[in-house]
Write a sequence for this structure.
């Protein structure tokens, strides 16, 4: 299987860095289905483990038995990585119609790729392992660590990242969370070159999409991964053939997407119901400490999910109890939250939260509550200071 098109160019060799998450799968599948010569897949490992180790597929079970756990969770048989490890042959990679169901490790191993776990990205063992594959490019998708310059300098084309936001908006490790937190109505996928900082390199390709109302964060992340996967192979070919036109990012338009803190899960009632519904429903599957804060009464409630919302209408009181659920007044509209309970122990935390307009002692807060002054496409652009 050739990926050189009609030009007769040699196949593009890639080392892929990803995670055991759904968002890493579509980009890898796109590379394989396009005939890109993926040489290995690298996963992050705990820092106290071996610098580099290779995962081995499990031996088949006896006839009549089936594994009950996910294969990726069972792959614990390990041996040191050897640079002479086997590689797939051209033509051996199947066309994959539902690779997400297969999982990243299973997908890689079904394609005959070595799967490595790296505890340190700066260790000579990883440098040697990547160099041994003579990659033309490193491709990352949902990889949580910053690749050091020495590693990015190994391939002639450098590193290319699939990022789930419209850079420079959403630089950082959790852009999907912040898309929902900031109430952004448009997002997208970006293919960009990697440099010494997080998500700051020149843009090779980008495509926007609307954020569906009520979308769950994992579903949005997967949609963006698929969108990015569709951009990845053309961008890689353009770069390899010297046909790419990298576009420098405008730092003045950049917003940050750090790992959220507990205060970033607080839901104040002085914002629109539609934002509260979309945010709570979106991030509920992530398991964060979703806390509803009724500003007019000072009450705090732990909520599990958002059931429905109305953009208009009014309640004669801030909160109406409906069994274990709560119907809550916002500005404007109302939201029905599932499995809510009073949490009076959070008062002190909320009083110091950036959602109350108080910066931490270390300077301006990173969270994006009503004081947010970044991206103007979201509902945080001009928040009301009036409590409801």
């Amino acid at each position: 299987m050739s990926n050189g098109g009609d030009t007769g160019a040699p196949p593009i060799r890639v080392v892929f860095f990803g995670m055991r998450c759904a968002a890493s799968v579509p980009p890898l599948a796109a590379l394989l289905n396009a005939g890109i010569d993926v040489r290995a897949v690298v996963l992050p490992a705990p820092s106290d483990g071996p610098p580099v180790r290779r995962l081995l597929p499990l031996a088949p079970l006896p006839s009549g038995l089936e594994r009950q756990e996910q294969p990726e969770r069972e792959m614990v048989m390990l041996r040191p990585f050897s640079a002479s490890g086997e590689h797939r042959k051209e033509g051996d990679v199947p066309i994959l119609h539902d690779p997400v169901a297969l999982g990243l490790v299973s997908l890689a191993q079904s394609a005959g790729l070595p799967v490595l776990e790296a505890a340190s990205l700066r260790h000579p063992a990883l440098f040697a392992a990547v160099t041994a594959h003579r990659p033309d490019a490193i491709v990352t998708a949902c990889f949580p660590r910053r690749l050091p310059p020495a590693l990015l300098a190994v391939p002639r084309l450098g590193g290319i990242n699939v990022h789930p936001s419209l850079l420079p908006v959403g630089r950082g490790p959790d852009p999907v969370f912040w898309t929902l937190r900031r109430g952004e109505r448009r997002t997208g996928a970006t293919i960009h070159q990697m440099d010494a900082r997080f998500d700051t390199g020149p843009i090779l390709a980008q495509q926007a999409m609307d954020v569906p109302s009520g979308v769950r964060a994992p579903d949005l992340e997967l949609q963006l991964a698929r969108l990015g996967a569709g951009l990845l192979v053309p961008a890689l070919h353009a770069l390899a053939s010297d046909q790419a036109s990298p576009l420098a990012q405008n730092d003045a338009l950049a917003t940050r997407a750090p790992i959220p803190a507990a205060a970033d899960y607080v839901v104040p009632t002085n914002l629109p119901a539609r934002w509260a519904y979309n945010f709570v429903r979106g991030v509920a599957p992530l398991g964060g400490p979703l806390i509803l804060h009724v500003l007019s009464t000072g009450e705090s409630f732990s909520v599990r999910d958002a059931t429905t919302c109305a953009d208009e209408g009014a309640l004669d009181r801030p909160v109406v109890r409906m069994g274990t659920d709560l119907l809550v007044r916002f500005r404007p509209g109302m939201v029905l939250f599932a499995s809510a309970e009073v949490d009076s122990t959070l008062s002190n935390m909320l009083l110091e939260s950036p959602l109350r307009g108080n910066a931490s002692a270390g300077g301006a807060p990173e969270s994006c509550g009503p004081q947010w002054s970044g991206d103007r496409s979201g509902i945080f652009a001009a928040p009301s200071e009036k409590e409801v």
Remarks:
- Residues 134 and 155 are 7 Å apart (CA to CA).
- Residues 1-6, 65-97, 343-388 have pLDDT under 50 and may be disordered.
- The longest strand covers residues 37-44.
- Residues 217-240 form the longest helix (24 residues).
